[in-house]
């Protein structure tokens, strides 16, 4: 067994206590698939295209396989390239994926408009529609879970009283030149963070942060790497990927600040090909099931399904999606405010691009 | 195989190297192409071989038209069975001597063994059999040239073009190979075209000599014809006739030199288009000045020993300086000595300066 | 002076003919290779994707399958007025020019010493010139950020350990230029090496005899004769550097240096992505590169660069004398900076349990080192599958690429085919289109093609063929220009078909050049990342993408580093065959 | 400048091309090196120019030792101021004709303007000034050769090495250039070494001729000396003496040919080491057979017209076949005619077959 499947099976979260496949698929009492669907799905294979982080997707598919026994195959690439590919393949009637997952609401919306997503209601649909921002276009696509964005520090370079606890701690002059940020234009999650910072602390906050002369990165991965090595001491970070790095042994610790966490979407939907694929349907059912959502939470995502008991992510406890502490950058926000936000951010950080 | 070239032209960009050339080489004939450096000899050969796309004209080898500008027909080189020894040798530096020579045989599907034997035989002819296994670029200049020659000889083509194939060889080797070449050419009835700057070679190898000037053939005839009756003063000069003088006026059986009060007798009355007289140095007789007697008086300006002969330059009193080549022997004149110079009337050639267009074969042969 | 006049009078009358008629320019030999089918193939491979890019630049919508229309607009040109474009362009130009010069210098010197001199351990120095090719620039840049970042860079840590008050800052213009220059030097090296090993020493000797010192000889004869290779590699290297995104991303952005590629990346990354505008920039780049290609053609057309002639080719080594060891030192220095240090950094990252380190003494702590990551990588199915796919794709596309490049190069430089200028221009187009944009073009092309290639390894091979056409052509072209045409013509006269003559004379003479081209294409295919990203599927995973994913994860740095090291090793092993073919001399 | 070569050796791998060669070229002297293809002429020149590392010996130019194998001293080419015209031309294909010729001047720090003027002047000498701006690869073979010559002439070196510099030129141009070269060489007191396969050229250009055989000098003397008294039968053959016969026995002032009942008169008693007799074809006189009279009777086997002369091969009755070159003129004999052949006693050279070691200068001059 590969290290990934081992981690997926037990390290991240112990396997569900009870998986019953005698009559369809039932996990911990929740029916994921009826008998007909499940039997068909076992002969089928999920084809998943994802713009989400590779490592978390690897964990997720390994877990899915372990819990359902259904084969799954992943093609991952950065969201912008993914979107280009999906739209092109779809246009040429060659879209192979049954499920497509993206991290940008605007991209998901575009998929919906072009018919890449077709309406599908998983068993938990009624539950899901109780929450805001989870079901879109009557189920054409769904929020699988949310990504949280906070900050973190190098746990070997920064210790004891030095550890920042709130967003305002980042403005401390001692971090001058030791901060890292990814520029706001680099993707939906960072734009969301900037919007959150403006909303919560005012534009002034950005200006002051900019005056700290942080190191500006193009991608999260390069920044994370720099943080692990201590090139920078503190950085604003995506929670899930950073947690993965920490588990993998990087000397990084995350902070879940009292004064708020920025959140962004992780959306998925069934494609026309997925309509013909029982396995794809089971994958969506499973993702939105309690078991799937818990596993996401354990990996460092914020579950989208309302009403679940909190699941810790290792030593951390992220706020629930509906809590005050969790600031979502909704698709409407994204459409209306992205450009402005980026411009403001660029000005504050004297960044061109 | 007969080679017929009609109105052939070739231009490199704006420069015309071959300019309406007409030439027929009879089957089994050996033509020597003579012409000064840059007159288009190599270019003509490359056209025959199919290595250049002529800008006009027609070439036929035997009954096959291999190139015709008007119809656009052009047979690729490798189908023409034309052998060529390049002026630049073009030995393949990455092959051994033997591999170079075996190549054309292998191309003719000769088996490895017989090809090797044949190649060794030809290498023997050019005196290189002991170097067969040497890399072709580890040779001296003359050795490379012999490899190039051997390679084309091994091929036994129907037409053989030789572009100064012996220029880097010593006199003796050259003579041997010249004899060998002539032998093979006559024995196999090979049609061949040969460029050389060596008059001995031209005379020894040629059935006919073609004089090329400015991209066209200006005289064509047997060696004796061309030597005895050059068609123009410029050809005469090129054939080594150094005594060429402009004519002032003609009067019956004599011409007066322009600028000098000297008249030369001629064997027959000078024709209308005559511009110059030419006298071969070998035909000029020089004696120590016995004051009376026929001929012109003068002073020896230069006297060069040339082995079997002596070359004089004699400045005639009130006249031009004449070149003369006399048999060496006792009593050679030295610089400054007075001399008497005699020019027989048969030796005085009265000629136009240039030949206008390429003359038809018959005209020249006359 | 009478002789002077008389010889002058002999000058042949240069009768200028009326300009050659169009008729006359019929293409002649070689009929067997007549250029039309070739032009069609190349145009199909290159122009269809490029056409999509062009359409994207001037159409309202992105012309992807299913929504191709011809509503044209010029509004995307507005991208050039965006703030920062000018600055970014300027930065890119500065980086491009200086790094190109650096690459040419390193590549040129190493090519010269290995091809022509008695430098100690020649084979080893040859390998030094080549090796950075095994390190994708993306990995190289990351390794250098590990080494040279101002706070936690290993070099700086080492310096602090030694008590030296000196900080290396790789996040600077100088750093970017150094890394780009070092990692693109192998291109220059390969192209120039094959060209220089074809030198006819008589030409050089003539310079010495006529009073030129060794330096003057190099300046007046050796390097000018290698001009096709030098210009060719300069063009390649410059456009690559100009478009290089990973190095900019890793080293320039943290140093607040904006470049055009990062700018294009941001356009593509914007939401919704601004593909049209990226395409506009690509079109402008295409125009620039075509102009440069044309200029290069012009410069080269007027002269001849044949060094291999039928009057012999005596390989001779120039004695370096006192320069032997300093130049060897130079090569070692390059080895250190381009290979040893980056690889050491990667190995260290792969085996260190914690990436954080304040002093090298940390490494002696128990448990600080663990080689497990290598084992993990080697046991992973994903890695093994992608490695297999990579090798298959790389070998196939390098073989096909070399063949196509040879055919194109031969047609362009050896025949009078009417279309040869066009053919060369078309083949150079992919050079100008940034990979990310070209990747989209290829994706659209192979999705709409009514052949079921999409989703197979074959489509990757075809895409690589298209993308690497310019590299292949430049590699072949300089060698073709070095060999005298008479040699091949002669074989034809001796009864060989043109194709046979090419195979038995031209190809062996160009062996070094062909092997270098093959090697270059092989390595490029192993490294190619952006284009396959648009075309791969889970079935056709290749190694470059797997590694990219590992790095993108951020967290899996240890595996990523381990994988990179193994990746380099695979490339090294793979390069063995073409290197064997390419070393040694031409003469028997 | 005087060039002194002592015991020079050069090996390519296991093959020895130059083998203990000794030669002194006096200041301002012109030496012509004659020898058959592959005997090591080019190699020797390359050693003098500093292009090859000799495997032994010593070379001094003027007072400077430029190479000494024992001390390991070796002055690089560009400091020797030795010009060389390469057998392979080595014209730089990427430069124009003018750039080729200007190069050595620019290397001597001559300013652009004067360098150009000088180059144009030299190009004028070789008749190429009208092609100055042409790319050097767009020339004919002979034109390239002239560029190579002009390049070395423009350099005005202290020692000039010419490796068959005129081999691709037509007779007339060659003669002009030969005169020009000799003129410059004498005017400037240039020390020069010249390889040629053309005897006329050798005789016209040489102060002394050095015969090279198998990597060493076997005879050295003025043209007249070498021509009149070749040191061995093989040199005589090489010098174009085709009538060489082994000696059977000697008796006073006469030698008997081996295998034939024929005795030739000699001018002086034959020396002890005599192996062969040699008779120059030019010295053989051929008349139509007037049955009585001196000389030997025979039949004309071959008769070749050679312009100013006729070459015969006469098969002597009961004797060998003799080559003869006679002045052309009326009454030439034709094949099959009976002839009478006369050989003057002074023309009979009695020689050893080979010269053992390189002889000292004095020995040969005797
Ligand atoms: N690189 C080499 N390797 C081995 N042998 C060589 C090499 N170069 C020349 N030779 C041999 O050395 C001998 C002398 O060569 P060199 O070029 O000096 O002859 P040469 O007298 O100039 O002859 P030629 O009149 O034909 O030019 C030749 O027999 C040749 O085969
Ligand atoms: N590639 C070229 N471009 C332009 N002109 C050329 C080219 N090749 C040859 N020429 C010119 O064409 C003319 C004829 O060249 P060609 O090689 O046929 O001469 P040639 O008669 O063989 O002379 P040589 O006896 O010197 O070899 C020359 O004046 C030469 O300068
Ligand atoms: Mg020629
Ligand atoms: Mg030689």
From TrEMBL, chains B, D:
Origin: domain of life: Bacteria
Family matches, as SMART domains: AAA
Gene Ontology MF annotations: ATP binding
Annotated keywords: ATP-binding, Cell membrane, Ion transport, Iron, Iron transport, Membrane, Nucleotide-binding, Transport
Protein name: ABC transporter ATP-binding protein
UniProt cross-references to Gene3D superfamilies, sorted A to Z: P-loop containing nucleotide triphosphate hydrolases
ABC transporter domain sequence ranges: 3-239
InterPro entries: AAA+_ATPase, ABC_SmlMolc_Importer, ABC_transporter-like_ATP-bd, ABC_transporter-like_CS, ABC_transpr_FbpC, Mo/tungstate-bd_C_term_dom, P-loop_NTPase, Transp-assoc_OB_typ2
Protein species of origin: Prauserella oleivorans
Automatic annotation (TrEMBL), chain C:
Ranges for region Disordered: 1-26
Residues that span the membrane, as ranges: 33-58, 93-113, 125-146, 166-190, 221-242, 278-295, 325-351, 391-413, 425-447, 453-470, 501-524, 556-577
Pfam families: BPD_transp_1
Family: Belongs to the binding-protein-dependent transport system permease family.
This protein's record includes keyword Transmembrane helix: yes
InterPro entries linked: MetI-like, MetI-like_sf
Domain ABC transmembrane type-1, residue spans: 89-296, 387-578
Its membrane topology: Multi-pass membrane protein
Places the protein is found: Cell inner membrane; Cell membrane
SUPFAM superfamilies assigned: MetI-like
Keywords, ordered alphabetically: Cell inner membrane, Cell membrane, Membrane, Transmembrane, Transmembrane helix, Transport
Signal peptide interval: none
Biological source species: Prauserella oleivorans
This protein's record includes keyword Cell membrane: yes
PROSITE patterns associated with the record: ABC_TM1
Protein name per its UniProtKB record: ABC transporter permease
């Amino acid at each position: 067994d590969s290290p990934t499947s081992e981690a997926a099976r037990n390290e991240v979260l112990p396997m569900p206590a009870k998986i019953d496949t005698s009559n369809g698929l039932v996990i911990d009492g929740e029916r994921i698939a009826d008998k007909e669907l499940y039997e068909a799905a076992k002969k089928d294979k999920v084809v998943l295209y994802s713009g989400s982080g590779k490592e978390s997707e690897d964990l997720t598919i390994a877990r899915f396989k372990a819990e359902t026994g259904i084969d799954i195959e992943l093609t991952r690439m950065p969201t912008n390239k993914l979107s280009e590919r999906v739209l092109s393949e779809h246009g040429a009637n060659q879209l192979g994926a049954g499920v497509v997952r993206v991290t940008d609401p605007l991209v998901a919306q575009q998929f919906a408009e072009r018919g890449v997503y077709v309406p599908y209601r998983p068993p938990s649909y009624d539950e899901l529609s109780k929450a805001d921002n989870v079901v879109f276009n009557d189920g054409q696509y769904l929020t699988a879970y949310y990504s949280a964005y906070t900050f973190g520090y190098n746990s070997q370079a920064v210790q004891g009283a030095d550890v920042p606890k709130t967003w305002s701690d980042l403005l401390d002059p001692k971090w001058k030149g030791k901060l890292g940020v990814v520029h706001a234009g680099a993707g939906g999650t960072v734009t969301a963070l900037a919007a959150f910072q403006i909303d919560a602390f005012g534009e002034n906050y950005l200006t002051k942060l900019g005056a700290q002369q942080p190191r500006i990165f193009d991608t999260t991965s390069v920044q994370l790497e720099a943080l692990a090595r201590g090139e920078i001491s503190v950085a604003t970070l995506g929670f899930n990927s950073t947690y993965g790095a920490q588990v993998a042994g990087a000397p990084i610790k995350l902070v879940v600040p009292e004064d708020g966490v920025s959140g962004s979407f992780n959306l998925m939907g069934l494609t026309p090909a997925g309509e013909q694929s029982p396995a794809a349907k089971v994958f969506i059912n499973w993702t939105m099931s309690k078991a799937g959502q818990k596993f996401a939470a354990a990996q460092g995502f914020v579950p989208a399904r309302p009403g679940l008991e909190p699941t810790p992510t290792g030593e951390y406890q992220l706020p629930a999606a509906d809590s005050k502490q969790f600031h979502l950058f909704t698709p409407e926000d994204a459409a209306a405010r992205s450009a402005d936000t980026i411009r403001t951010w660029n000005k504050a950080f004297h960044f061109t691009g | 195989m007969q080679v017929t070239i009609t109105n052939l032209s070739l231009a490199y960009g704006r420069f015309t190297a071959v300019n309406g050339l007409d030439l027929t080489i009879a089957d089994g004939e050996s033509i020597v192409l003579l012409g000064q450096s840059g007159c288009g000899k190599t270019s003509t050969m490359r056209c025959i071989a199919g290595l250049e796309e002529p800008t006009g004209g027609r070439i036929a080898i035997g009954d096959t038209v291999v190139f015709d500008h008007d119809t656009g027909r052009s047979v690729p080189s490798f189908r023409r069975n034309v052998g060529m020894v390049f002026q630049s040798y073009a030995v393949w530096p990455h092959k051994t001597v033997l591999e170079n020579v075996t190549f054309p045989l292998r191309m003719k599907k000769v088996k490895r063994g017989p090809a090797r034997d044949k190649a060794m035989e030809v290498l023997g002819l050019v005196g290189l059999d002991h170097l067969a296994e040497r890399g072709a670029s580890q040779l001296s200049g003359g050795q490379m040239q012999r490899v190039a020659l051997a390679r084309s000889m091994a091929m036994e083509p129907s037409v053989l073009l030789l572009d100064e194939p012996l220029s880097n060889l010593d006199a003796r080797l050259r003579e041997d190979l010249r004899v060998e070449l002539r032998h093979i050419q006559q024995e196999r009835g090979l049609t061949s075209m040969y460029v050389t700057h060596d008059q001995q070679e031209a005379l020894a190898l040629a059935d006919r000599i073609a004089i090329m000037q400015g991209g066209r053939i200006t005289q064509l005839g047997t060696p004796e014809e061309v030597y005895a009756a050059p068609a123009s003063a410029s050809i005469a000069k090129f054939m080594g006739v150094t005594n060429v003088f402009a004519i002032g006026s003609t009067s019956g059986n004599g011409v007066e030199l322009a600028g000098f009060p000297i008249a030369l007798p001629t064997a027959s009355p000078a024709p209308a288009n005559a511009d110059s007289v030419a006298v071969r140095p070998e035909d000029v007789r020089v004696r120590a000045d016995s004051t009376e007697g026929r001929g012109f008086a003068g002073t020896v300006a230069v006297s060069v020993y040339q082995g079997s002969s002596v070359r004089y330059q004699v400045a005639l009193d009130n006249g031009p300086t004449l070149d003369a080549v006399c048999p060496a022997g006792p009593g050679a004149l030295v610089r400054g000595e007075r001399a008497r110079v005699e020019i027989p009337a048969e030796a005085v050639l009265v000629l136009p300066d240039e030949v206008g267009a390429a003359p038809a074969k018959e005209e020249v042969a006359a | 002076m009478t002789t002077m006049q008389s010889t002058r009078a002999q000058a042949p009358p240069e009768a200028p003919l009326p300009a050659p008629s169009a008729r006359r320019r019929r293409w002649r030999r070689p009929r067997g290779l007549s250029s039309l089918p070739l032009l069609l193939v190349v145009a199909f491979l290159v122009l269809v994707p490029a056409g999509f890019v062009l359409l994207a630049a001037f159409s309202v919508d992105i012309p992807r399958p299913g929504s191709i229309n011809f509503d044209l607009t010029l509004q995307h040109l507005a991208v050039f007025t965006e703030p920062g474009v000018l600055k970014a362009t300027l930065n890119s130009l500065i980086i491009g020019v200086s790094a190109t010069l650096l690459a040419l210098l390193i590549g040129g010197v190493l090519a010269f010493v290995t091809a022509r001199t008695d430098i100690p351990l020649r084979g080893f120095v040859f390998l030094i010139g080549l090796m950075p090719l095994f390190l994708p620039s993306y990995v190289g840049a990351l390794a250098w950020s590990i080494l040279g970042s101002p706070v936690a860079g290993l070099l700086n840590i080492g310096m602090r350990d030694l008590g030296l008050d000196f900080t290396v800052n790789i996040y600077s213009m100088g750093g970017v230029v150094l890394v780009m220059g070092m990692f693109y030097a192998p291109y220059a090296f390969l192209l120039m090496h094959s060209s220089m090993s074809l030198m006819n020493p008589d030409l050089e000797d003539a310079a010495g005899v006529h009073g030129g010192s060794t330096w003057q000889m190099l300046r007046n004869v050796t390097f000018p004769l290698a001009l096709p290779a030098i210009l060719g590699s300069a063009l390649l290297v410059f456009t690559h550097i100009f478009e290089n995104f990973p190095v900019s991303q890793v080293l320039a952005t943290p140093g607040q240096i904006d470049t055009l590629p990062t700018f294009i990346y941001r356009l593509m990354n914007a939401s919704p992505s601004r593909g049209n505008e990226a395409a506009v920039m690509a079109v402008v780049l295409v125009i620039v590169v075509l102009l440069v290609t044309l200029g290069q053609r012009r410069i080269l057309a007027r002269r001849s660069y044949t060094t291999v002639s039928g009057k012999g080719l005596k390989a001779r080594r120039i004695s370096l004398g006192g320069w032997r060891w300093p130049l060897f030192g130079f090569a070692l220095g390059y080895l250190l900076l381009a290979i040893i240090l980056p690889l050491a950094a990667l190995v260290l990252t792969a085996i260190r349990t914690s990436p954080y380190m304040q002093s090298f003494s940390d490494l002696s702590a128990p448990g600080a080192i663990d080689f497990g990551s290598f084992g993990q990588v080697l046991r992973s199915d994903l890695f093994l599958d992608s490695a297999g796919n990579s090798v298959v794709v790389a070998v196939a596309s390098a073989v096909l690429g070399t063949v196509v490049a040879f055919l194109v190069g031969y047609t362009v430089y050896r025949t009078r085919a009417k279309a040869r200028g066009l053919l060369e221009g078309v083949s150079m187009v992919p050079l100008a289109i940034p990979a990310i944009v070209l990747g989209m073009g290829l994706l659209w092309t192979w999705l709409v093609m009514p052949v079921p290639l999409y989703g197979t390894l074959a489509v990757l091979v075809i895409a690589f063929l298209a993308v690497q056409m310019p590299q292949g052509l430049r590699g072949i072209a300089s060698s073709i220009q070095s060999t005298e045409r008479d040699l091949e013509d002669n074989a034809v006269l001796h009864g060989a078909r043109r194709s046979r003559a090419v195979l038995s004379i031209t190809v062996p003479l160009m062996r070094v050049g062909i092997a270098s081209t093959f090697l270059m294409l092989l390595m490029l295919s192993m490294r190619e990342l952006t284009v396959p990203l648009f075309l791969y599927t889970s079935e056709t995973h290749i190694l470059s993408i797997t590694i990219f994913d590992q790095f993108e994860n951020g967290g899996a740095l240890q595996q990523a580093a381990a994988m990179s090291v193994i990746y380099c090793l695979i490339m090294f092993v793979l390069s063995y065959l073409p290197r064997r073919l390419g070393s040694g001399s031409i003469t028997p």
